[in-house]
């Protein structure tokens, strides 16, 4: 059966299809991640030639199966060219969404989180906590975030000021009674930030532990498959003057 649709969307990835067309992977507000065939988009004068990652559009499509045809694309905002840092962060965010989602599964909370992290990047944010917030919101939206603030072994609820909790296998939180030997310590500040709205930046002392904690969860979901964007981000930071003090 032929279907058609229209939705706000961002392009996550594009690759050639035949001599003149493109296959797009997009994230939409109400339809989840979609694959679309943009016929003729590689032609020099095509109206679909500006379908680049990170740009907001209203897309219309029609067709059958897993790859309907893109009918039109109306740009919602003027194009903004990312700098090296923004471009690499965009690559990372897009790669996460592509790896951890499936097509045709609407997740409105994820679309909202994606739109917000892009606004942070386009506004010139270089603080890496914006990426941590997106990672946690991604995990929450997909139902994979660790069940903070409860111990995964006994169900004990965390209380502020209690003895230090730790990170168990798969980033699962553990109370002091079931502490994981050698596991990352989950401080009060970490649990409060991850369990809250994450509107404000976390204190500097927990930013690296947050990175390691969230990476452990994401790595388990990736099942050992590396992210190319991580490699490029790490290489970029090594080239920066302050690379010895900065992690992402």
Automatic annotation (TrEMBL):
Entries under Gene3D superfamilies matching the protein: Nucleic acid-binding proteins (2.40.50.140), Recombination protein O, C-terminal domain (1.20.1440.120)
GO BP annotations listed: DNA recombination; double-strand break repair
Signal sequence interval, chain numbering: none
Keywords: DNA damage, DNA recombination, DNA repair
PANTHER family: DNA REPAIR PROTEIN RECO
Purpose of the protein: Involved in DNA repair and RecF pathway recombination.
Protein name: DNA repair protein RecO
Organism: Acidithiobacillus caldus
